């Protein structure tokens, strides 16, 4: 049974950095990639980027390219999201989501999600 | 990259059918996936690859995708179906994932 367990909520000041972790269990960690998705209060889902659990390769959404780092630790089956230079509008719930392999329509989707981590950027 | 357009809201009476659209140029050429999100909870996959239901998802959920419109249909709507629904594709040209703007389904 696949489980993704994320780190707890944090309050950060503008300009600071935050790191969110996502620990996976119930399958072979290196088999599937992960995406990070965030959701500002009352807003929709926003894809931030992807990391390969196999080799650590990353793809970032253009909006976040200069502020985000995604890493993984295969020894603990954990992926990490670091967001730098936090702004008020980074206040959101951040989700990790495990992808599938390439699907029947040659696409990728998110079958498993973490519980979400609230990051509150406050003065 | 892809811009996926969904209606902001859909209202439906219990027992009736809810239809949620996701529009983009030639979206029929891509695999479309749908997620249900209830307040305070993480999204749940309800349809993948246009028409496939994950195990554990009610047969009342179905999907289609052709031309410029993908559709999620909820038959015999129940109060528990009240949620936000998001479509999602993989933009192959940029290798990024894209979510639709989301549709709030209200059960009257």
Largest sheet of chain B: 6 strands, mixed
Note the beta-strand portion of chain A.
over 45%
End-to-end separation of chain A in angstroms reads 40 Å
Alpha-beta classification of chain A: mainly beta
Characterize the largest beta sheet of chain A: strand count, sense, and whether it forms a barrel: 7 strands, mixed
H and E order of chain A: EEEEEEEEEEE
Cα Rg of chain B: 13 Å
Shape of chain B: globular
Helix content of chain A: under 10%
Low-pLDDT stretches of chain A are none
Parts with pLDDT < 50 across at least 5 consecutive residues of chain B: none
Q: Which oligomeric state applies?
A: heterodimer
- Percent helix among the residues of chain B? under 10%
Shape of chain A: globular
Q: What does this protein look like?
A:
The complex is a heterodimer of chains A (123) and B (108). Helices cover 0% and strands 48% of the residues of chain A. By secondary structure, chain A is mainly beta. In chain A, strands 2, 4, 5, 6, 9, 10 and 11 form a 7-stranded mixed β-sheet that branches. Chain B is mostly beta strands and 108 residues long. The model of chain B has no long low-confidence stretch (mean pLDDT 97). Classes of the chains: A mainly beta (123), B mainly beta (108). Chains A and B meet through strand 5 and strand 10 of A and strand 3, strand 7 and strand 8 of B.
